């Protein structure tokens, strides 16, 4: 073979090699687009939603029983419902906000009262580690029945649009339950910037959001229950004077004021309750 022929053949081989490499690259690119679609799409997903930083703006201070170890708080049709804890001192109360409860009933020891939620003409009152939940008449607070409740009872609220109860047990978990039987309907882990948030306690459902006290802090979280993501962190510190703080007097109690964007907040052994708005920090 002449020198010119060898050069021509070599050039042909090189061209074929480049062509094969290009085709192979194109195939890999196509494979990446099809087989790796989730990864490529993931790179183009919008950044995580920024968590709003809010604080409480006090609109009014109301009296509160400083002997009440508050565990649950809710307002329905102008009536403030409050559940209190501690074995031998637990109770269920109802009356106008800021006034002495017109109706009150005690829980016999060793029951430890916890979160509450009104469901139509009845309400549920959880217990801490007693293995039961109590259904009561919402008007008289009379006990109607007790049902097994295997989890620790902490907080509870009703998502009316989804017709389900949301409950907490002090972990990072929110559980969804049938409002008539308390049977499980699933759960979600609450995360803040991807990290689980433990200590979820008293709950309040407002529209599609769930608000939760974080024990034993002065924080309230707004949570998207569909994903468990925290959408707002609310600083509720500084509400009490130093001489009003006693051992165990932590923030615990958040209730939306119907028809407004306001809330009532209080705590265990707090002498006052506050009507507040959540505003930018």
From TrEMBL:
Q: Which domain of life is it from?
A: Bacteria
KW Signal (keyword) present: yes
Q: Which UniProt keywords apply?
A: Signal
The record's section on PROSITE patterns has: PROKAR_LIPOPROTEIN
Extent of the signal sequence? 1-26
A Pfam family found in this protein is Glu_cyclase_2
Task: List each coiled-coil range.
Answer: none
UniProt-recorded name of the protein: Glutaminyl-peptide cyclotransferase
State the organism of origin.
Streptomyces lannensis
